[in-house]
Amino acid sequence: AGAEGATAGAGETAARAFVAAAGGDDVLPGLTVTVTRTPARADVTVAGTSLSLIPGWQPRITQHASAPVERITG
Q1: Which residues, 6 or more positions from 64, have their beta carbon under 8 angstroms from its beta carbon?
Q2: Deepest of 10, 29, 54, 73, by most Cβ within 10 A of its Cβ?
């Protein structure tokens, strides 16, 4: 999402592909991806439910990344 010419949709696709490559629903069920992109900044939040060894406990995991949008300047 932060690459020059990229879109918020590209950031969401990349995040979903990363989770899918790591095992998808088998490792992070209930996946949600939220992307916000302004002309200066890209923010991506990925959340899901972690696997648990304790019956009945399903911790919610959230990770956020923020980066400046690449752009040609002066």
Answers
A1: 43, 44, 45, 46
A2: 10
End-to-end CA distance of the chain: 22
38 dihedral zone (left: phi>0; alpha: psi -120 to 50; beta):
beta
E strand or H helix that includes residue 48: strand 41-49
Measured CA to CA in angstroms, residue 64 lies from 11, 28, 56, 71, 74 at distances of 12, 15, 26, 22, 30
Tokens of 37: 């992109």
Residue pLDDT, tens place only, 27-39 = 899 999 999 999 9
